[in-house]
């Protein structure tokens, strides 16, 4: 029995060590900064020797792969879009980033628009992306503002802090492979494949359950709201100081009425962002882009919109930039 156990243990250990070596040496680029969970300032940004910047899916940031010159080319109108999964869309071409580039070029503007929106990113991690983007000479930054991802920001900050601490309880988490499995369990990514008994035993302890409890707590919601307001204001102030024009796209969520129809709610984001407006800061509320009737067909859930919805946002942005006199 002991011999069989030892043999099994050695096989398991060999597989684990092999997987760890493969991860560390063969996937080093995609794993770089991976366990900073999006809090590493330059994760996903790779500056090449020929002056190019490559956006890659690494370091906890799932950028759409894109490449641009570090120094903005003469005559180009450079637009950087920062946001969460709503702004990200299904692809660069289908997102309002790609659609805006198309709209502006149709107007004769030599635009280059880049989609730096990341799924699950809240105000703090979006602000880190914004700070890096300012190094690349954007003419315009479009910041998609919402208040639905603060739980994710807080969770990933805790993970980063815990897994990088020297406490013995985290020693096993030095393994990239074990840490990946830990994340999958916590977020219930393989939940549907677990036996029912295991799921029942761990019910209510997963990530989705924790988020639901936090979202129902009034004090937590108030703290998150304050955090979004403060971090967004600081980012806008940085852009103003650098003379970079900014458009705030404020999120609107779809809600079902008792009559079975839909209405759009900005969750007070539109109100407090008004205080941030100025000569170089404009705003596009999503609730002004869609009618309640369009919300019925263009929203895929409470927050995300179909490619046709992205097209309408892009058209509204192009019109806003023209009326502001911000187009070259």
Automatic annotation (TrEMBL):
<dbReference type="GO" id="GO:0016788">
    <property type="term" value="F:hydrolase activity, acting on ester bonds"/>
</dbReference>
<dbReference type="InterPro" id="IPR036514">
    <property type="entry name" value="SGNH_hydro_sf"/>
</dbReference>
<protein>
    <recommendedName>
        <fullName>SGNH hydrolase-type esterase domain-containing protein</fullName>
    </recommendedName>
</protein>
């Amino acid at each position: 029995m002991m011999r069989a156990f030892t043999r099994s243990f050695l096989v398991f250990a060999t597989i684990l060590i092999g997987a760890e070596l493969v991860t560390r040496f063969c996937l080093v680029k995609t794993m770089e900064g991976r366990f900073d969970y999006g809090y590493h300032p330059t994760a996903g940004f790779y500056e090449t020797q020929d002056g190019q910047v490559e956006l890659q899916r690494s370091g906890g940031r799932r950028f759409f792969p894109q490449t641009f010159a570090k120094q903005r080319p003469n005559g180009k109108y450079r637009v950087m879009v920062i946001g969460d999964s709503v702004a990200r869309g299904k692809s660069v071409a289908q997102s309002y980033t790609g659609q805006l580039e198309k709209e502006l070029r149709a107007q004769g503007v030599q635009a280059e628009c880049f989609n730096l929106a990341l799924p699950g990113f809240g105000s703090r991690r979006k602000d880190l992306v914004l700070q890096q983007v300012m190094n690349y000479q954007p003419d315009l930054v479009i910041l998609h503002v919402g208040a639905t991802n603060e739980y994710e920001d807080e969770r990933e900050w805790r993970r980063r802090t815990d897994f990088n601490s020297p406490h013995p309880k985290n020693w096993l988490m030095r393994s990239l492979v074990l840490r990946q499995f830990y994340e999958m369990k916590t977020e219930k990514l393989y939940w549907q494949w677990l036996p029912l008994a295991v799921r029942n035993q761990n019910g209510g302890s997963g990530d989705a359950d924790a988020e639901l409890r936090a979202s129902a707590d009034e004090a937590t919601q108030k703290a998150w709201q304050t955090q979004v307001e403060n971090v967004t204001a600081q980012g806008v102030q940085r852009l103003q100081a650098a003379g970079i024009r900014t458009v705030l796209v404020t999120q609107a969520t779809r809600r079902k009425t008792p009559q079975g129809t839909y209405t759009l709610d900005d969750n007070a984001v539109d109100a407090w962002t008004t205080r941030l407006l100025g000569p170089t800061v404009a705003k596009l509320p999503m609730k002004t882009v869609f009618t309640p009737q369009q919300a019925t067909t263009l929203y895929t859930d409470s927050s995300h919109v179909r490619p046709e919805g992205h097209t309408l946002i892009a058209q509204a942005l192009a019109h806003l930039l023209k009326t502001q006199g911000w187009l070259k």
